[in-house]
């Protein structure tokens, strides 16, 4: 068995064991963050049957995934990086989920482009939960307004996404995100990465985004 598949199985088992101890029996989906990795590193996971993959650059994703997705309709591609409006047209054609919507301008562009090709992409709104100047994401105070705008625009809004501040215990941020997500009646929640996915799973994350723990460090 290829090392990437072993790593994926280890993560799945770790989550299940961890959650069962606290009487949670619904496990999050694992988005294998394949950005910067060549397709030969990703193929073993596809052959194993894994379907959720994450990329953060549109151009790289188009080059890597266009042919594979044509031949494998089950694969779900997740845009997890910052999306520039001038790349939305290409992103909409390829991706199934966008985790990083944080403005009305971007939401409007996605709605326009997906209407052109009669496609409904599942949308997460990225929340700047730590109020960090250098990070993308909508401020909590402006979130309700953006939610309303997205619904009016006809976007398929499924939940929220966050990246907590680094080098700080993420638990309080995950707890807050869970509450905000529930208050908005969303069913999906995208949070947790290689360093904190177990804690994110505790707080009802339904999609965790794991790269290095599956693929190893980038060379």
Descriptive account of the structure:
There is one protein chain. With 219 residues, the chain is an alpha/beta fold. It has a domain at 3-100 and 161-215: TIM Barrel. The chain is 44% helix and 17% strand. It contains nine helices and eight strands. The protein has helices at residues 3-21, 39-48, 58-71, 88-94, 104-116, 143-153, 171-183, 197-202, 212-215; strands at residues 29-33, 52-55, 76-79, 97-101, 122-127, 156-162, 188-190, 207-210. Strands 7-6-5-4-3-2-1-8 form an eight-stranded parallel sheet. The radius of gyration is 17 Å and the shape is globular. The model has no long low-confidence stretch (mean pLDDT 95).
What is the gist of this entry?
This protein has helices at 3-21, 39-48, 58-71, 88-94, 104-116, 143-153, 171-183, 197-202, 212-215; strands at residues 29-33, 52-55, 76-79, 97-101, 122-127, 156-162, 188-190, 207-210. The chain has 219 residues and is of the alpha/beta class.
* N-end to C-end Cα span: 22 Å
What is the succession of H and E elements?
Answer: HEHEHEHEHEHEHEHEH
| Percent of residues in β-strands | 15-25%
CATH top level assignment of the domain at 3-100 and 161-215 = Alpha Beta
Helix residue percentage: 40-55%
Unreliable runs? none
Mean pLDDT over the full residue set:
95
How many strands in all?
8
Radius of gyration: 17 Å
CATH topology of the domain at 3-100 and 161-215: TIM Barrel
Largest beta-sheet characterization: 8 strands, parallel
Strand order of the largest sheet: 7-6-5-4-3-2-1-8
- The general outline is globular
- CATH homologous superfamily name of the domain at 3-100 and 161-215? Alanine racemase
Structural class: alpha/beta
